[in-house]
Request: fold
Amino acid sequence: MDGSPVNSSGSTKERILGAAELLFAQRGFEGASLRQLTAAAGVNLAAVNYHFGSKDKLVEEVFRRRLDALNESRLVALAKVAGAPGTTLEDVLEAYIRPALELSHDNSGALFMRVLARAFAEHDDSLRQFLSTNYGHVMRQFTAEFARLLPQLSKPELYWRIDLVTGALTHAMSGFGMIQRKSDVSEHAHREQTVQHLVRFAVAGLSHP
Amino acid sequence: MDGSPVNSSGSTKERILGAAELLFAQRGFEGASLRQLTAAAGVNLAAVNYHFGSKDKLVEEVFRRRLDALNESRLVALAKVAGAPGTTLEDVLEAYIRPALELSHDNSGALFMRVLARAFAEHDDSLRQFLSTNYGHVMRQFTAEFARLLPQLSKPELYWRIDLVTGALTHAMSGFGMIQRKSDVSEHAHREQTVQHLVRFAVAGLSHP
DNA sequence: CGTATGCTCAAACGATCGTTTGAACCGGCC
DNA sequence: GGCCGGTTCAAACGATCGTTTGAGCATACG
Reply:
């Protein structure tokens, strides 16, 4: 009753990470067992503890593999517009949204957004602390830029709205990947359209009177 | 290392449901074991299977106990404003938001919103089908009223925005209950302020050009 | 050749999981 | 008293969990 025993190509570590991404998205961190996981990856059961040390470390590595590149892209995009006089709210939000959308372009990236949404909903302390200590500076930089562009909002008010917008975006992007799209729209055009969709929604949620 | 063995008062079934709400919110459906659960409730391990049949049925009952009342309140509030000529988007959104906020006023209700957010993030098929078949008509009625008040939006566009707003609201309300508030604001005034906050955000997200 | 080193393997470890069992207890009713 | 339906109890069931073990295999270097 487990998933198909088909293994992807690549090294043992990469096959484990790929299978973990899929099963964590489908059944959660506690619901996916190492036996299902290694069977799906086509590797031996002991390979997880050999290469990663423990299941918890594997979970961290699943996040690290994607978030290192994702948040780096976000910071690079933010640096191009932050602090400049003509920068708009749209520019900053696009710097936050577009890298995530490009990540969820391929199948495994979209699965990771599901995993991220799960971690967002779970209030697990150890996982939240891992994400906060390793990637907290990213959200801090974006928050500072939001504060600069929305000076009329009090700090509590701004944090409230950022929290709401972040929740909406995380939820929305966790639903990607499984969407059947009309064939007459090119991949690129559709992604561009989705970015504008999310950006406009976020602008409305952040800057409404 | 488990939670304190303090049991709440009430019947065995109610004690189990209360402990389940707490532990499901903290550790998830798979992460919370029946042994932790019954120990926290102060009842025998076999009581769960005796009163509910299985762990899965217990999960369904945790939802049913809260959602029956919550969605009934929402429909009653919606019926008071739906279809009327002077009804605004604010009225409809308030009918959706206020009952949930009143539920999360007490501690156990706030815990349930966490459980609901978890179910929202998990893409578990059986649980989604349970929620859809039992409470799908509620969201369908609200969607119909949104469509009436936002005729300029295409159907896909409307569904997109409702999905984004629902994700934001679910995430926001899952964070309640643990918030320390300044003592100079009354409980009622704070809730009223929060309702207006969420309503205004949702209006902006739904009706932006 | 011998021998390190990095990796994979089947097998087993103890712990914990959801569920079931059968005896014990309880109030109310004949 | 005797009995009975509803409930609680300790104990055990087989299954599955994360992790560890030690032998086996391959490749590289002296």
About this structure: Chain A touches chain B through 36 residues (CB under 8 Å). Residues 12, 43-47, 50-51 of chain A lie near DNA strand C (CB under 10 Å from a C1'). Chain A is about 75% helix and 0% strand. The domain at 1-53 of chain A is CATH 1.10.10.60 (Arc Repressor Mutant, subunit A).
